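GatB/Yqey domain-containing protein, pasting as requested.
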Amino acid sequence: MLKEELKKNEIAAMKARDKATVSVLRLVNSEIKAFEVNERKDISDEDVLRIIEKQIKQLKEALQYAIQLNDNDKINEGNFAINLLTPYLPAQLADEEVETMLREIITNGNYASSDMGKIMKEIMPKVNGKFDKSKINPMVKKILG
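Structure tokens follow.
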């Protein structure tokens, strides 16, 4: 399970005295624990992936801000954390693969531009955790164009 892998890696980083890695993994593990406490259930790998995705998204936003401020320390920290967490995510789909999936969904469902919600509902489970969701809407508009 992904939760145990994250915890083992945090402990290994502690033993290696790798403060930067410990800091990033501790943050993710605390989010996992908070989820379990709030939901009163054991966390699934899918939920762990959502937490990691959320952390990476927040790190990327902070990284953009650090770049604007030209803060090299924060830029390095952000890049380190993103690079540390990214391997925990499933292999990412290429834009072309998702575009092919969308074309297939639109053709098979005979969807028009007014069916955006139906298209999104059908594609999201297929790309969950494997693709940047913010890219999907523009792709659909381009295909339906």
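Note for the archive: Helices lie at 2-15, 19-39, 45-69, 72-85, 95-109, 116-127, 136-144.
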